[in-house]
Structures are given as structure tokens and as C-alpha cells.
């Protein structure tokens, strides 16, 4: 083990978490041969297999499970050391690891931009993914802070609202309901709906509203991004409920309209989240304060 490197341990830990060499390579921006080579060298250093293949699935061996626990302890101590050094340096240097759900990409870069102008020595790593993946990263404590459209359920985490996130009904500009006032929810329920994937915070909030009124959505299509949904709306494939923030970028002028529907907008907030008991670095604390001040 004396000849193993932190990079090899990072590669191993990532594979153990994701259960896949391919996904680990994608997350670490490495080629699969490089990943395999690093694990081969680590296995040679340990002297016993770390993974075993059962059918098409890969599992940790007993030694692999023990090494994974050791890796977590090592990375936790290194993170504490990094925070200690950052505290010594103040905000002249340091890093911020931020993970956000996809819809947050419409406003978070602007907040990061103003933060980095105040603190130009800070390095920022921004991860944008769907809610399910961000919750996985939260449960593994992979980042400093997380931005979600609704607080996580079933996880021991602190969640603080910092910005309004109204959900609105979007339709093609020439839709039959465009221009009508206080459209009944029952009428909207008859329209074909375009939804994000199952587990999306926006979808959960929409389904809850309709269910509370004894209504069921007429789902025509599930799409994996807000941009795809907006293009499908323009194409006349249906209506959708999205955050008003999605209209601040890449929203074709004059091609999409916001419908005036009873019960809308759904008033929600954006939340900044971190694991309960986590010791935030001086940079993370400063960015948290920045979010609070920006939302006033």
C-alpha cells in the first residue's frame, strides 16, 4: 500500500460508489483504460482483489469494502485539513464545490459570477445534474453546498430557502387558452402534458397540486431537459409546468406564453442544502452569506 497514490484511491472510491468503471471514467473525466490501469496498480499494491464480477454486476470484495471505509476516512481528514488551510488564508484563495439541479443553471452562474468578482482567488467547481444524482452526491457528502428546488426527504440535511422559484404553466403562443383568465384546473387537466423525468422536483410539485384536486395529468411525453420541453411546447406537442427561471434564457421570444391558471403560479423556493453537522469551509460560509444577501 505504500506505493498507492491518492489518485488511485480516488478512482477506487468513485468506482465503489457508482458500481461501474464506465460511470467512474465519465465522472472523473478519464478514459476507461486509464481507470483500469489505476485499479490494476492499486490491486497489485494491496495484494488481493478489490472487486469481483458476478454475472454482469460488479461487487466489492471483503478487502474492497474495508479499503472503501478507509478511503472515506482519509478523504474526510483531507477535507478537514483543506478547510483548516482555507480558514488560515481567509478568502484570498480556496475552492467551492457546488452541485445544483438542472433548472438552477438559469440563475446560479450569475450568482457565482458576482461572488467570484468579490473573491477572484476562489476556484469554483460546478456540477449540474438531475435531482436524483444531486441527492446521491448529497448523501455521499461530495460537495460543499447543494441547490435544490425542494428540501430533500429522508436525508439528514440542513435546507435553507434563499430565492423564490414560482412554477408557471407554459403553452405555445397560439394556444387556444392563451389570453384567457383564471383557467380552471379541470380544463387544464385535459391538455396533453410534457413532463420532466420521474423524481423531478417540478414534476412532484405539479402532480401533488393536481392530485390535491382529484385530478390526473394527461401525460403525453417525458423529456429529460427543460430545453427539450420548451422546444416541444413550441412544436405544439402540449403544455408544461416549469420554473419561471427557465424563461430567462433560451426562451424563444413570442413562441411561448404563460397561461393564467387557477392555483398558479405554484409558489416555491430554491434551497441551499448541506449535510447536518457538516463543518462548512470559510469559502462555503461566504457563498452561503452571498446567497442570502442576493435574495433580499
Helix content: 40-55%
Strand content: 15-25%
By CATH reckoning, the class of the largest domain would read: Alpha Beta
Please name the fourth-level CATH homologous superfamily of the largest domain.
Answer: Periplasmic binding protein-like II
If helices are DSSP runs of H or I spanning 4 or more residues, what is the number of helices? 10
Derived structural class: alpha/beta
CATH architecture of the largest domain: 3-Layer(aba) Sandwich
Topology as a string of helices (H) and strands (E): HHHEEHEHEHEEEHEHEHEEEH
Uncertain segments: none
Count of individual domains = 3
Q: How would you describe this structure to a colleague?
A:
- With 296 residues, the chain is an alpha/beta fold.
- It folds into three domains: 6-71, Arc Repressor Mutant, subunit A; 92-163 and 270-294, Periplasmic binding protein-like II (D-Maltodextrin-Binding Protein, domain 2); 167-267, D-Maltodextrin-Binding Protein, domain 2 (3-Layer(aba) Sandwich), CATH 3.40.190.
- It is 41% helix and 22% strand.
- The strands form four sheets. The protein has a five-stranded mixed beta sheet. It has a three-stranded antiparallel beta sheet with strand order 10-7-11. A two-stranded antiparallel ribbon has the order 1-2.
- Helix 8 links the parallel strand 8 (192-195) and strand 9 (218-222).
- Helix 1 (6-18) packs across helix 3 (32-46), helix 1 packs across helix 4 and helix 2 (21-28) crosses helix 3.
- The mean pLDDT is 89.
